[in-house]
Specification:
Number of helices: 6
Low-confidence stretches: 162-166
Keywords: ATP-binding, Nucleotide-binding, Transport
Family: Belongs to the ABC transporter superfamily.
GO molecular function: ATP binding; ATP hydrolysis activity
Domain ABC transporter: 23-155
Mean pLDDT: 87
Pfam families: ABC_tran
Shape: globular
Distance between the termini: 21 Å
Radius of gyration: 17 Å
Structural class: alpha+beta
Amino acid sequence: MVETLLQVSNLSFGWPGQPKLFQQLDLQLQRGKCWRCLAPTGVAKSTLMQLLLGTLPLQQGSVVAHCGLGFVPQYFTPPFAYKVLDIVLMGRARHVGLFRAPSAEDHQLAKQALYSLDMLAFADREFGSLSGGQRQLVLIARALAMACEVLILDERPRHWTYTIRTGC
């Protein structure tokens, strides 16, 4: 039997005074499957992701995550001049806790995430000095370091090669 990682049932949502963006949406994300939401700009893909992540309150229906969710936003501007490794270590926050420093294992997992995307050489560079594509790879590494079973990307990285994209 296929394991469901994220279950959306009867989801409806609309902004006040506007028509509903979603009505009675049902969705199951299953282990080993890739799901894409392809649509023109401005048709509420980001709103749907916010509902899935719980950062926007539901008006009707339910979203149940049976695992951790990782998220890669379209844009990210850190408030300080963080190093790339520090950005990726932020993905370990739920494992580390609020008042503890990342462990050697957390550092190793963050470096492995960077290595998997050919970004380890940039670990000591300032995040703001990177190109847009490099920043996006760092944010993907941060999501990978979360060790979540579902990754939600708010925009497909345009620079991914065909071989990387063939899985989805």
